[in-house]
């Protein structure tokens, strides 16, 4: 029997089409910043990030521009320092909860950089990167937790190796180098929502 409204909606209506590697429905924006995972490598880890462009400002077109190599370095002084980066994530969760997908899940997105998880380096090889529009120290929006937890639940159903316990922060896999998604990220809330979506016992 279904007893909770979140459980009843199953991942907020999100699902993964494994053949295409796409989250449905998510707005699809192709990033050239990706390549093949190592042969036979399925997603085994989810890495959460925080990003805002310019730093501390929300809602602009700049994150999508960065991930598609279209960031105008003249538009803001900070952009001059990052316009040459070739980076991407699989998903971006905007402040209003909208999900944008840049890279299909079977492909390798370029989000983690030098990184290590449980002794395994190169997390990009075997992880899915999800960016949240935000900063380390300001609260993420409730709509972002709803979309994020739904997306993760859908990914866990599509790729059985994934689980609620295989979701980490960029700061966990690149300690000392990265701090995102930051102290503002509410891990207990995410765990609670994931357990509801996946109909597990409470964390
Ligand atoms: Zn990051």
Quick synopsis:
By secondary structure, this protein is α/β, with parallel strands linked by helices. It has helices at 5-9, 62-67, 79-82, 142-158, 170-173, 187-197, and strands spanning 15-17, 22-24, 27-28, 34-36, 45-51, 91-93, 99-101, 107-109, 116-117, 120-121, 127-133, 167-169.
Structure description:
This protein has helices at 5-9, 62-67, 79-82, 142-158, 170-173, 187-197, and strands at 15-17, 22-24, 27-28, 34-36, 45-51, 91-93, 99-101, 107-109, 116-117, 120-121, 127-133, 167-169. It has 203 residues and is α/β, with parallel strands linked by helices. It has a 6-stranded mixed beta sheet with strand order 3-7-6-11-5-12. The longest helix is centred in the C-terminal third of the chain and has 17 residues, at 142-158. It is globular and about 50 Å long. The two termini are 20 Å apart. The structure holds zinc ion (ZN). Zinc ion (ZN) binds at residues 49, 170, 178, 180.
What is the element layout, followed by pairings?
Layout: H1 5-9, E1 15-17, E2 22-24, E3 27-28, E4 34-36, E5 45-51, H2 62-67, H3 79-82, E6 91-93, E7 99-101, E8 107-109, E9 116-117, E10 120-121, E11 127-133, H4 142-158, E12 167-169, H5 170-173, H6 187-197
Parallel strand pairs: 3-7, 5-11, 5-12, 6-11
Antiparallel strand pairs: 1-2, 4-8, 6-7, 9-10
The chain binds zinc ion.
Residues 49, 170, 178, 180 line the site of zinc ion (ZN).
């Amino acid at each position: 029997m279904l007893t909770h409204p979140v459980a009843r909606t199953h991942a907020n209506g999100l699902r993964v089409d494994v053949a295409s590697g796409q989250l449905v429905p998510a707005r699809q924006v192709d990033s050239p910043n990706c390549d093949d995972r190592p042969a036979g490598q399925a997603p085994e880890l989810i890495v959460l990030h925080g990003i805002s462009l310019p730093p501390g400002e929300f809602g602009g077109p700049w994150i999508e521009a960065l991930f598609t190599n279209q960031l105008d370095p003249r538009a803001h002084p900070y952009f001059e320092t990052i316009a040459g980066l070739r980076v991407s994530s699989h998903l971006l969760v905007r402040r209003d909860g909208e999900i944008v997908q840049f890279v299909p899940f079977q492909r390798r997105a370029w989000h983690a950089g030098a990184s290590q998880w449980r002794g395994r380096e190169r997390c990009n090889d075997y992880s899915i990167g999800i960016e949240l529009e935000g900063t380390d120290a300001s609260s993420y929006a409730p709509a972002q937790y709803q979309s994020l937890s739904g997306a993760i639940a859908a990914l866990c159903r599509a790729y059985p190796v994934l689980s609620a316990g295989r979701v980490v922060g960029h700061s966990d896999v690149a300690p000392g180098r990265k701090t995102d998604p930051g102290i503002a990220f509410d891990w207990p809330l995410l765990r609670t929502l994931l357990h509801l979506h996946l109909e597990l016992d409470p964390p």
